[in-house]
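Section 5: illustrative case.
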C-alpha cells in the first residue's frame, strides 16, 4: 500500500497539496478514533496527558510528520515521484547517521562504508542535477527524525497516530474552514466522488500503519525490515514506468550508489541475524532455559 500510494494523490486534483494535507490530518483522526473506539483502547490517554514531556515529544513528532506528508504529496503531484522514492531509499542511511551523531552509537565497518557510499550518491545526484536533491533529503531527514522521536515516546502505532493527528486536527480544520470562506475549497465543489476521495485520505494514511503494526508481531524483524524496501522500489518503478519521469545517466549513477549502500547494509544485517541465531542455538545447548532473541533490529524504511 505504501508503495502504490503515488497513484492515489493525483486523483485528488484539483485540490492543492496543502488542502490535501489538511484533509489527511482531519480524516486520519476520524479513522483512528473510530478504530480505537471499536477496540476500546482509551486507557493510554489519561496516562499520556499527565506526562508533559511525552506530550511535547508527540507535538514535535506531529510537526515533523506534517512536513514529511506535505512534501511527499507535493512531490508526487508535481512530477517528482522518483526523487521522492530516493528519500525513502536513503532513509535507513540517514537513520544510522543520526544514531551516530545524536545517540553516540558505534557502527561496524560495513555500516560506515554504507553511509559513506550514500553520502557520495547524494553528491553525485546534486552535481548531476545542478542542485541538491532537497525533496529526497527533506523526506529522509523528516522521517528519520520522526522515527527517533517515536522511539523516545514509546507509544503504540495506532495510539501514537491518534495523539499526533489530535494535535494536527484543529489547525487543519481551521485551514479548511478558512479555505471555504475564501471560496477555494474543493471538498464540496467538485462532486460527491471528489469529497469521498478526500475523506479516504484517512484510510490511506492509517490502514498501512495498522497492517504494519499487525505484521510487526507476526514476522521476524529482519524480514520486516527487508519487506519495507518494497515501498520505495514500487515508487521508483511507478515514477519511471507510469509517470514517465526522466532518468539521465547521472541519476542512474546516484541511485546505483544508493542501492550498493543498501545492499551492504542488508548483507551486514542478515549476517548479524545469522550470528545471533547461531549464538542462541549454542546457548540453548548449554542452558535449556529460554534465552532472549539476539536478532538485530530491522532498518525501517518509511511511511508515506
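Designed sequence:
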Amino acid at each position: 500500500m505504501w508503495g502504490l500510494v503515488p497513484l492515489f494523490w493525483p486523483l485528488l486534483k484539483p485540490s492543492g497539496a496543502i488542502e490535501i494535507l489538511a484533509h489527511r490530518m482531519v480524516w486520519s483522526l476520524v479513522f483512528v478514533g473510530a478504530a480505537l473506539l471499536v477496540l476500546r483502547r482509551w486507557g493510554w490517554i489519561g496516562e499520556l496527558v499527565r506526562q508533559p514531556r511525552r506530550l511535547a515529544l508527540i507535538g514535535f513528532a506531529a510537526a515533523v510528520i506534517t512536513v514529511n506528508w506535505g512534501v511527499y504529496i507535493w512531490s508526487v503531484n508535481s512530477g517528482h515521484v522518483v526523487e521522492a522514492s530516493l528519500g525513502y531509499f536513503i532513509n535507513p542511511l540517514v537513520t544510522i547517521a543520526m544514531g551516530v551523531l545524536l545517540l553516540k552509537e558505534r557502527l561496524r565497518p560495513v555500516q560506515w562504508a554504507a553511509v559513506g557510499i550514500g553520502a557520495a550518491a547524494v553528491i553525485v545526484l546534486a552535481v548531476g542535477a545542478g542542485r541538491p536533491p532537497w525533496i529526497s533529503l527533506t523526506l529522509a531527514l523528516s522521517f528519520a527524525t520522526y522515527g527517533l522521536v517515536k522511539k523516545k515516546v514509546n507509544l503504540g502505532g495506532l495510539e501514537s497516530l491518534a495523539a499526533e493527528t489530535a494535535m494536527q486536527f484543529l489547525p487543519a480544520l481551521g485551514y479548511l474552514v478558512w479555505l471555504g470562506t475564501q471560496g477555494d475549497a474543493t471538498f464540496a465543489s467538485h462532486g460527491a466522488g471528489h469529497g469521498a476521495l478526500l475523506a479516504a485520505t484517512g484510510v490511506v494514511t492509517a490502514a498501512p500503519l495498522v497492517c504494519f503494526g499487525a505484521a510487526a508481531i507476526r514476522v521476524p524483524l529482519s524480514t520486516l525490515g527487508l519487506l519495507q524496501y518494497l515501498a520505495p522500489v514500487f515508487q521508483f518503478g511507478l515514477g519511471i514506468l507510469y509517470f514517465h519521469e526522466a532518468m539521465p545517466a547521472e541519476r542512474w549513477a546516484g541511485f546505483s550508489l544508493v542501492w550498493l549502500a543498501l545492499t551492504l547494509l542488508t548483507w551486514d544485517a542478515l549476517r548479524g541475524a545469522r550470528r545471533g541465531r547461531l549464538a542462541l542455538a549454542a546457548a540453548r545447548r548449554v542452558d535449556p532455559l529460554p534465552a532472549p532473541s539476539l536478532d538485530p533490529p530491522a532498518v525501517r524504511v518509511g511511511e508515506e
